Amino acid sequence: MSLSIETNVLLHNGWNSIQYTTANNRLLIAERTATFILPTTSNNIQQDTTYRVTLSDGSSLKGKANHFLKVRPVGLTNWSLMTIVEIREHITRNPRAIPNQEFYCCFGNCEYKGSNPPVNALEIEPIDYTFNFSPTPLCLIPSYWIGVLAIKGMLDKEEPEVVLDPELKSLMNNHCLGLRQHHIVNNADPNDFIHKFRSDRYVGDKSQLSIDLFNLGLLYSDKCNRYIHDSYLFTSTNNRIDLLRGLMDAGGYIDFRNGGLAKLRVFSSRLVENIYLLVRSLGGYVEVNKVGPVWTLTIYPHPTINPFSREGLVSNYTSPNISPVPRRFLTSVQQESEPSLVSCLKYDSPTALVISKSLTGLDYIASRC
Fold it and tell me: For 311-338, what is the mean pLDDT?
């Protein structure tokens, strides 16, 4: 692939800059499997003319003219490969094919927006499957706890008296066997950890527990700086589902006025990005809206996943009757004013579409040389 060295690609164990990938790194691909970087071409960086490709949701990538994306004109059923320069020519010939802002997040057949995509608009093939990572070593604090702590916080100075309700406390206790065994905490209690923890209170476990919580970004963190550690994002599917349910049980709700959608409010931009990756990695999608300091995330999980585990939320949640991944369209291809450094990777599946992180926005783009 011939992309700007600014690009991050998705490996089996997380994101990595394309310029720092090495031979035999395993790349996740849109064909729902993985491919290996060939040793003879790793880190082949050169300077060349590049183009910025922008999609209707604000996502973008920067690559050489001969870089491929998989697209189809509106109305056709088959996907085909087009180079960046071919896409540019198509848009130039069909100026009315550029979608309006109303297609920022266009689910299903777009009827909920009240109109159809423009004739000749180029739609990009979606990425809509559960990523299979090679799990990184986890701290023994359970994934569900991490989700709750990322929302509720520990020793949050702004909300020092918040106490978990009995149902959430019980759900956390159901996941705490590893925590008890690892840290030798007498009478481990979720409320104790979230609001009353002091490292000097527990003789025998204070250093390891303090280190674990600090390294996970959960110790003394305020709500605007919280995040989920990579070891909990790039792990097994079951652990990621537990993490999502911890987040949603602690701070999520069902918006009955808008079709019963699952929603979550957060204050940390880094946590927004973490949750986006988490839901996307499970085959779903997140719609993001920001008003003031608050992000409201609408969660569209994979139809087989209920994002809640609390009794009242589980029974009242119904999976939306739409595709969890929106349709996206090409809106512009602009040549960069100056040559850029690009990395030309070769991998053992030459026709594979490698997943890269957008240079702008939150979503991902599949493409190849």
Answer: 86
* Superfamily the domain 2-127+325-368 falls into: Hedgehog/Intein (Hint) domain (2.170.16.10)
Contact 60, 111 (CB under 8 A): no
Q: Which of 30, 116, 7 is nearest to 81 (CA)?
A: 30
Task: Place 219 in a pLDDT band, splitting at 50, 70 and 90.
Answer: low
Instruction: Supply φ then ψ for residue 53, to 5 degrees.
Output: -100, 125
- Regarding pTM above 0.90, the answer is no
The runs of H, that is alpha helices, within the chain are 84-93, 143-152, 166-173, 177-183, 190-191, 206-215, 230-233, 237-251, 269-281, 311-316
Strand 33-36 and strand 14-17: pairing?
Answer: unpaired
Q: How far is CA 204 from the centre of its chain?
A: 37
Between CA 365 and CA 357 the distance in angstroms is: 6
- Judge whether 210 and 219 are in contact, CB under 8 Å: yes
Q: What is the mean pLDDT of residues 45-69?
A: 91
The domain limits of the chain are 2-127+325-368, 143-316
The structure tokens listed for 259 are: 């079709």
Tens digits of per-residue pLDDT, 258-267?
889 999 999 9
- Tens-digit pLDDT profile for residues 167-177: 887 888 777 65
Torsion of CA 77, 78, 81, 86, to 10 degrees: -50
The token duo for 266 is 């957060």
